[in-house]
């Protein structure tokens, strides 16, 4: 006899694409038989490092997470430092991509607050103003790079690689 959750998954699987069916099947197998029988699935789930993007520019919040997902990362975007601090991502984020000139608490102020709270997260700063000076000591803390918008996929990838090698 099927319980209601299994029945729902079965209905969802009937309407799903082949990729989604594979996901349902894998999830069901992991749930039934334990992760020890599927170490590759466990490793895949663990290797998707969460990258948090904090930028007040809506177009960046929409496009950058998509690019990060294409590069193999999990991604979440936030409109402000305060929104990020109030989220459950603070402890989960393996890397931050922060706009320097956020309204309210700036990117560098957010980085200092995270360090004060014991979250020494590798940080990549970005700015849309090439003339904006980089605050002294910014790259000496937990930051790895300051990218000037628009930046290339390769520049972002190199900065992420450097930042995540540290963790």
Task: Note the main attributes of this structure.
single chain; 47% helix; alpha/beta; 167 residues
Outline the structure in words.
With 167 residues, this protein is of the alpha/beta class. It has 2 domains: 4-45, no CATH class; 48-166, Response regulator (Rossmann fold), CATH 3.40.50.2300. It has helices at residues 4-15, 18-33, 39-47, 58-70, 81-85, 107-116, 153-166; strands spanning 50-54, 74-78, 95-99, 123-127, 143-148. The chain has a 5-stranded parallel beta sheet, with helices on both faces. Strand 3 (95-99), helix 6 (107-116) and strand 4 form a beta-alpha-beta unit. The longest helix has 16 residues, at 18-33.
Provide a short characterization of the protein structure.
This protein has 167 residues and is an alpha/beta fold. Helix content is 47%, strand content 16%.
Write the layout of secondary structure elements.
Elements lengths: L3 H12 L2 H16 L5 H9 L2 E5 L3 H13 L3 E5 L2 H5 L9 E5 L7 H10 L6 E5 L15 E6 L4 H14 L1
Parallel strand pairs: 1-2, 1-3, 3-4, 4-5
